[in-house]
From TrEMBL, chain A:
<dbReference type="GO" id="GO:0005886">
    <property type="term" value="C:plasma membrane"/>
</dbReference>
<feature type="domain" description="ABC transmembrane type-1">
    <location>
        <begin position="85"/>
        <end position="274"/>
    </location>
</feature>
<keyword id="KW-1003">Cell membrane</keyword>
<feature type="transmembrane region" description="Helical">
    <location>
        <begin position="207"/>
        <end position="228"/>
    </location>
</feature>
<keyword id="KW-0472">Membrane</keyword>
<feature type="transmembrane region" description="Helical">
    <location>
        <begin position="120"/>
        <end position="142"/>
    </location>
</feature>
<comment type="similarity">
    <text>Belongs to the binding-protein-dependent transport system permease family.</text>
</comment>
<feature type="transmembrane region" description="Helical">
    <location>
        <begin position="255"/>
        <end position="274"/>
    </location>
</feature>
<protein>
    <submittedName>
        <fullName>Binding-protein-dependent transport systems inner membrane component</fullName>
    </submittedName>
</protein>
Automatic annotation (TrEMBL), chain B:
<feature type="region of interest" description="Disordered">
    <location>
        <begin position="1"/>
        <end position="22"/>
    </location>
</feature>
<dbReference type="InterPro" id="IPR051393">
    <property type="entry name" value="ABC_transporter_permease"/>
</dbReference>
<dbReference type="GO" id="GO:0055085">
    <property type="term" value="P:transmembrane transport"/>
</dbReference>
<dbReference type="InterPro" id="IPR000515">
    <property type="entry name" value="MetI-like"/>
</dbReference>
<keyword id="KW-0762">Sugar transport</keyword>
<dbReference type="Pfam" id="PF00528">
    <property type="entry name" value="BPD_transp_1"/>
</dbReference>
<feature type="transmembrane region" description="Helical">
    <location>
        <begin position="97"/>
        <end position="119"/>
    </location>
</feature>
<keyword id="KW-0472">Membrane</keyword>
<feature type="domain" description="ABC transmembrane type-1">
    <location>
        <begin position="92"/>
        <end position="308"/>
    </location>
</feature>
Amino acid sequence: MAQLSPRTRTAAARRRRARPGSVARYLILVLMAVLLAGPLVWQLSLSLKGSGEPLYTRPPAVIPEHPTLDHFATVLDRVPVPRYLLNSLTVAAMAVVGNVVGATCAGYALGKLRFRGRGLATAVCVAALLVPSETVLIAQFLTVRTAGLVNTLFGVALPTLVAALNVLLMRNAFRNLPAEFEEAAIVDGANAWQRFIRVSVPQVKGVITVVAIFAFVGSWNDFLWPLIVLSDEQNYTLTVGLNRLRGTFYDDPRLIAAGTIIALLPIVAFFAVLQRYFFRGLEAGGLKG
Amino acid sequence: MTIEARPGTPLKRGGGRPSRRGGTVLATHRWILTPWLFLLPGLTVIVLMVMVPFANTLGLAFTDSTLLRQGQYVGWENFHRMFADERFTTALLNSTLYTVCVVPCMVVLPLILATLVSGAGRLSGFFRTTMYLPVVMSPVVVGLIWTNMLDKRGLVNALFDTLHLVTEPVPFLSDRWLLLFSAMFVTVWTGLGYYMVIYLAALANIDQSLYDAAAMDGAGVVRTFLNVTVPGVRSTMTLIAVLSSVAAFRVFGEIYVLTGGTGGVGGGDLTMTMLIQREGTGLQARTGYAGAISLFMFVVLGALLLVQLAVQRRQRSS
């Protein structure tokens, strides 16, 4: 919370200055909060409304008259949501492990070791960063198809298993560490692997956490790639499975709403618990530099 | 500068700059291959899943390959065909329009919001969290929520009707242009919180004495905003312009879900990414043609990036 203090001070100073201004400020902020969170509240309300309840009243009613959990049961009954959840979790776990291990190791080599070819390896990562995934989509699909990984969860995880962005993030994290610790370890006769595990990695745990979290969210929310790779409903991830809600429950928005709420719960809980890492990720990502 | 970053990914800047502190340790690894062992897993994935596919895209674009048949070299034919293809010109128009409309919103609105939130004292944390919430949601879920909201009988039309703003339901999801603008709105709705958090970090770095001086000069809210805040976050504005324009040109999820996967009536709401997805997948896939569209898209995105970098350089030198 320490980094908040200058901002809080600013706030205090400004509040003393302008009273009517701050009323307008809060009015706009509350309005924006309603605009951004309101649709979620409306979905929740829709999903709880009883089947007999009129949906199209004027003015629209936010509080359900006969709240019920039936629609959640119907969705779970007709769509294999637990299966989708498990698939999404599997893919996300692969992405997290792959990015944490792959990016940390590669980042260490690029940031802390000196060797012939380091410039080239760094250049490859930067170049990869500049290739938007959509523009290699088809070629990636052909690669995965040749490898026989179409319609597998590993095939879904593969292209983002180690992201160039994360390698470079880790490289910068290792580079910015003071050299003294590693030098001391070298004097003690530690080899590169020991220095990596015992000395450097413990100092960049924060960045590793950020990499893990964004790998998880990115994989959890990915839609286009799993849509292309997966054909068998048994293997659908949550996003691909949900996409079919609209077709399945076209006639009843209550069921679509219930489906979206089910899909939202895990990720919102995840965000609520780890939110400071989300914000730290955006700030410590190097924006101050 | 990252081209990959979009709502939901961490940001990185100034990657190539040598660090002030220490930096590289004197290289003492005893075995010449040690660094390459460290690099092996990461570099393998990056080379096999990004660099090689990119090279393959370059090759594919000049062939008439299909999913089931390795094609022949056909020179620039795919590109000639592209510009005669009405779906391609529609997709290009839609993606371009999307970028032109979304980027100014993403540069300006989150800055205003960040200014308001940063001054909200103890409540700023609450507002920050609330506004960031849509960012962590999947585009599919966001799309479904807004499908419900924008339906002919959805909440938006119900509110309009209650307030007697309209006599007939607005066809947000069936009219070609309305659907495109609805999708833009959804994109902005999702991205606001993300860019706002970036601005919040930048605002915290503005020297407080500048605000005090402005207040002493009797500058109002608007003048302080224009003369202190905006110049203070100018480089962040450029960064966000780059990030959001690249993200907007690549739009897929919102349009896909809002149109139910069809790309709108007669494909009128197709975007570049949707076109690549349609042309390049399925049993009828014309992978060569899709490769050409991908290559074209890569060139557009690269050009966007170069333009913005040039702008940034000029800003820095002036």
